[in-house]
Give the backbone structure.
Amino acid sequence: MTSADWATKDFYKVLGVAKDADAAAIKKAYRKLARANHPDSHPGDKAAEDRFKAIAEAYDVVGDPEKRKEYDDLRAGVGSFGPFTTGGGTPPFDFNDVFGGRTTAGAGGLGDLFGGMFGGGGPGAGTRTRTSAPRRGADIETDATIGFADSIEGVTVSLRLTSDAPCPDCSGTGAKAGTLPRVCPDCEGVGMRAASVGGAFTMNETCPTCRGRGLVVDDPCPTCHGSGRGLSNRTISARIPAGVKDGQRIRLRGKGAAGERGGPAGDLFVNVKVAPHPLFGRKGDNLTLTVPVTFDEAALGAEIKVPTLSGAPVTLKIPPGTPNGRAFRVRGRGVPHTSGPAKGSTGDLLVTVEVQVPAVLNAKARDAVEAYRDATGGTDLRANLFAAGRTP
């Protein structure tokens, strides 16, 4: 690959920094992007892997003062881009340095920046890669439907899970009983090999012989056909915390698929669906309730009993002249606060009154209503509507 090929790439744009950014800003941007796009955080995501490689490539250039100067000169049309030319005796750029430990010219690789956070390279790592090290199990996802009251108080549910797991017949080796796999002769058990991408440039790719396992099976297990993997059906008990909302995603660490080569299990993500309640609703950490009141209770005032989710009713005082739709607050009868400054306390119950108009009146009630109308006949509630309409 020629210098002109690299001159077309905007490494500053890849890292999201300005062309005059200092070394600290470039390193900070690189660390943030590398964490967000690292293949170990996105297993099987080819797009994330490509982004990660582009980020590492960009940092290898602008993260090193000498390479950055030559790159800037090249982009400005001055001089030649020494580190990336295919001749002149300059060491070629090699992605193995990025993924394995240190980059050329002393620029720190992922092992330097993350200290083995992802199980990758670093000082003393040699040719070890994540495929030969213990591998974390896959995350799995399932759904759970719980009752409204259970969502407020918390509940333990049983979940039936199907996930990837080591084959039970070969214990994950992939080899037929009585036989063992052998180390892959092409990658020597690493699972990755260097491949040329043009000129003097190389990068790591999955070994095609062993498909990244680092092992070759001559006599495959008839159950898993040499893959070493199978399906696991199991039932687990999962605790859904108090205060969970409808549609919330709960993460249960270590409850996912089993790891490989002694690696930790993945996580289980539970998508919670909360069944509606016939009386109560929810607004944040407050419960809501609508209760009917009669005209005389709203006009004259009353004390009424209203239910709570816990079952113990409370007495609510309705003051005289209460309008339809007014809300009253019953403190401490809502949803427990599970986070934030109010953690440990409880929300409130918001009671909205709904004045009921009788559909049918008996003779005595009709006489009473007509007497009320006669007593208030001089009041026109709609007078202001017409007055406002005539205002210029």
